[in-house]
Amino acid sequence: xxxxxxxxxxxxxxxxxxxxxxxxxxxxxxxxxxxxxxxxxxxxxxxxxxxxxxxxxxxxxxxxxxxxxxxxxxxxxxxxxxxxxxxxxxxxxxxxxxxxxxxxxx
Amino acid sequence: xxxxxxxxxxxxxxxxxxxxxxxxxxxxxxxxxxxxxxxxxxxxxxxxxxxxxxxxxxxxxxxxxxxxxxxxxxxxxxxxxxxxxxxxxxxxxxxxxxxxxxxxxxxxxxxxxxxxxxxxxxxxxxxxxxxxxxxxxxxxxxxxxxxxxxxxxxxxxxxxxxxxxxxxxxxxxxxxxxxxxxxxxxxxxxxxxxxxxxxxxxxxxxxxxxxxxxxxxxxxxxxxxxxxxxxxxxxxxxxxxxxxxxxxxxxxxxxxxxxxxxxxxxxxxxxxxxxxxxxxxxxxxxxxxxxxxxxxxxxxxxxxxxxxxxxxxxxxxxxxxxxxxxxxxxxxxxxxxxxxxxxxxxxxxxxxxxxxxxxxxxxxxxxxxxxxxxxxxxxxxxxxxxxxxxxxxxxxxxxxxxxxxxxxxxxxxxxxxxxxxxxxxxxxxxxxxxxxxxxxxxxxxxxxxxxxxxxxxxxxxxxxxxxxxxxxxxxxxxxxxxxxxxxxxxxxxxxxxxxxxxxxxxxxxxxxxxxxxxxxxxxxxxxxxxxxxxxxxxxxxxxxxxxxxxxxxxxxxxxxxxxxxxxxxxxxxxxxxxxxxxxxxxxxxxxxxxxxxxxxxxxxxxxxxxxxxxxxxxxxxxxxxxxxxxxxxxxxxxxxxxxxxxxxxxxxxxxxxxxxxxxxxxxxxxxxxxxxxxxxxxxxxxxxxxxxxxxxxxxxxxxxxxxxxxxxxxxxxxxxxxxxxxxxxxxxxxxxxxxxxxxxxxxxxxxxxxxxxxxxxxxxxxxxxxxxxxxxxxxxxxxxxxxxxxxxxxxxxxxxxxxxxxx
Lengths: 106, 807
Prior knowledge:
A: 106 residues, three-stranded antiparallel sheet, 9 strands, globular, B: alpha/beta, five-stranded parallel sheet
């Protein structure tokens, strides 16, 4: 069980594709980084909150939302909440950008 | 000792009687059957499908030789009985064979009525009644080109369709002003005529044949008005005549048929009649259902088991011609004692008429949509009192997708499922409509998820809205945009793109005032498609706006892995390619190798990051098994190897697939090419399907084997492969330009109307222009797997998964 949070460098900012996801595996766990139109980077767990599962790496990105590629759930990158009428929540991570370095806290 | 039972006739009604009897009393009789035809009992009704090429003669045999043997039935096939000796209780055959009977069944059926006009004995004049007639027509069609069918009833039209399938030109001659006047009223008959004309039949109505022309063989017909037509084959389908001569000669009472009572007994003791030769309460039946009922009563009578008398049957009829969906039963016409309910939807080609007498349904005519036929026919035969029902609940014209009907909604229980995909009940929907004040189908979907998967239940949801809201529900009230981001319809979006010269997805959304700035998963792929369709000579595709599978050029699976399906043109592969696929499957430890529904090989469960390397190892183009594009062209083996094949189906299939692969279409497009009307490639349920006939190809469009099963409509018959490709190109482009994104060809065709599409595609200049735009569009595509292998940026952006390790 991990109790202490760790901040790690996960990518170079300029290598992240715009308006698309980039999957990063950290010790076996996959997190997806989304560089959205505003330039901000968001990070979510690569697992759709849909009851049948699925991944989010190849989601369609629209502003601050992504659309789950398998079940078309609309998910907020801000808080991980699935938008109505569907329900659910995906785990989000705190992202910080220092110069060209993208760090997340897990 | 067993009683001796002899049956004269070896057809459907007679043999069914014997089957029933064997069930009731397996060892009661020593049975002998004489049959005129040198065949065991076969399904006469299916002769038209044999003629139309859908079935072979073997397919329609109902009781094979072994059946007679294993039931100890002595069968004399091809041997005619010429005499019945009532005194000696004996029948005598043409070969002098004498067989004694205790009980005798006459089941001699009927023959085609051959018009007593000069020349009717000429070669090339046939009825349409038995296997021999059928074989003769098939044989003649290889040698002759022009056929005339006399008789525009059920049988005549089925024969005519068969002859068209055999590659003949067909004139249908009919005495009356309307086709099938005994089953259809003028309106339905007119609709049928139009459809059949579209299929290639030519009608000569109100024409009476005066003479059949020719020397030894027929060369034409002359009518009473003096006009003539050319014909190398004449099919008489003016009616049937019960075969009663033998009974008459034997002194059995005969009127039009052999007269029987309610237990199928003739006026001579121990002699019975059943089937088309029998006349019961002044009716001679020519359809199978009543004949089977008669057989049942007769079998019980013979077995000495108490039975209800046979009291006659009301018959429903259907026409076995593709594209002509019709049903008819009971009284067709109106008189002073009847009132009728009619629905005529000219736009969709649907016509329904219910004739009501004394508050009960007395007659039914359905054309274009026969899904209510069972229900209505049941009401008719049960003589249900309908005075408490509204006309809408009896006859509902909506429910285009087989969904429910407003009349049924009230009767639905609250816990009845409306949306099977999402498990939403009627009660949930009604509750949601009331508490959230919902007014549209989309809102109901947004609130409850109903109708958001396959969409099949949307019309039922609409009915529930109508039922719940009453007058407040107006189906046209709220204009639905292409998605929640806009109120603009597809046509408006496309018009704006053209008028304002918009060239990229973002621009469209900005200029047209999208509520969600970057759009959603519905409008982004749609706009990207429309832009590509409008700017066919140079649109830069926006990959990130595509649906995930198209973006990745692989099908995403539910666990986030992908599938790889290499192109295999026309479903034809080689040993070398199979080896390569096998090696790749082993190398990448592919969990599942499976043949797909479209005759391709799929490798399933591949990790995203392995995709480019696998593609490189395969060295084959993408099969686009994931795209809104041409999926596969399914083919049969065809004339190269198959003994039935009349055309090179693989050749055409491969050429179609090579020409149209990668083309973006509003939805997926599937094709099928069969080399003969047996149609092994299932061309009748494809977006476009080809059926090889002698001397050409039939082209069928708008078929669908999916959620809403729809048989394709015949578009045209062409002679050459080049014509087939040209029509296909024009058809695809017209579909591309007029369909909404994600609208399959089946609903599109229903919406546009077959006649309209036919008209457009019949215009040579139009076809040329459509093909020019299509060809220009096709120039734009690159092979996507190859592109991914050779372009590092694409590889990194779409297929790489980074790994970071933490100490």
